Amino acid sequence: MKNIGFLSFGHWSPGRGSQTQTAADVLLQSIDLAVAAEELGADGAYFRVHHYARQLASPFPLLAAVGAKTSKIEIGTGVIDMRYENPLYMAEDAGAADLISGGRLQLGISRGSPEQVVEGWRHFGYAPPEGGTDADLGRHHAQIFFDVLRGEGFAQPNPNPMFPNPPGLLRVEPYSEGLRDRIWWGAGSNATAIWAAELGMNLQSSTLKDDETGEPFHIQQAKQIRAYREAWKAAGHTRTPRVSVSRSIFALTNDMDRAYFGTGEKGKDSVGYLDANTRAIFGRSYAAEPDKLIKELAQDEAVAEADTLLLTVPNQLGVEYNAHVIEAILTHVAPGLGWR
């Protein structure tokens, strides 16, 4: 059995053929798609976060709105770029959104990805520690955020407050119990996956990672997951961690599917450079008739290792078509793989 959700990158553009012409379109359609996915029996609605781009950016208003409109589906991110975040203010936002949803938030956080602008986090008022990198900045913010979610008091109360305080040191409010166990780290390398395990975060692994061995993507990703689980066990955590992978998967069930995804080269990983020093491997997409898709996915070692699968959806094709994409996987593919 697997948890199966969707991951939307939240693109919008006024271009021809786009059904998300404006930021308002993509926000409102994101809510509608989450509602539709819940009705279809999907387990999660996840959203990517990018800054300075025609994509979803500030996640918490959207997460709170989805939480208010749904009742069962998990609501998450994949991922929030922690280089841009005030960890304490983020803890307030996350606590509020989690309470609105009834404890359904699953927050993926990370150092972030290559950006639209140069050192965009500096415009948000943040800079790496002296002698450190922007990756250090992201991990530093993440550790503060993760620690604050313990719900322990740390701030000295005013002796003459406007309103009465509870006894002792004060914590960030609102506090949502259990949210800390639902924080995921988006790891692009084996080392950061191990780091996340040692801290006690769940693991998100996307469709790209550092090319560390030259092996096919799904094999490298499966090894990353196994290293994460070994580090989790060695750290002595008592709960069972969760692991998600994301994939572009399209079951070709009608002429529209074939027109969109049934042509062109597919079925191969690709390799590129995220920067001058970072060689990355990008995982293949899957697009085939359901019976063939079942056979291909059965060979994906990383999908087999994960407990959660996030389907990346082409959000600019609109709610109705994306609901069809999700339904096709749930009804025509997942049962054949034992996921349902």
From TrEMBL:
Q: Name the CDD domains on file.
A: Flavin_utilizing_monoxygenases
The record's listing under PANTHER family reads:
BLL6902 PROTEIN, LUCIFERASE-LIKE MONOOXYGENASE
Gene Ontology cellular component terms for the protein in this record: cytosol
**Gene Ontology terms for molecular function:** oxidoreductase activity, acting on paired donors, with incorporation or reduction of molecular oxygen
Pfam family membership, one: Bac_luciferase
Provide the Luciferase-like domain boundaries.
9-251
This chain belongs to the protein called: LLM class flavin-dependent oxidoreductase
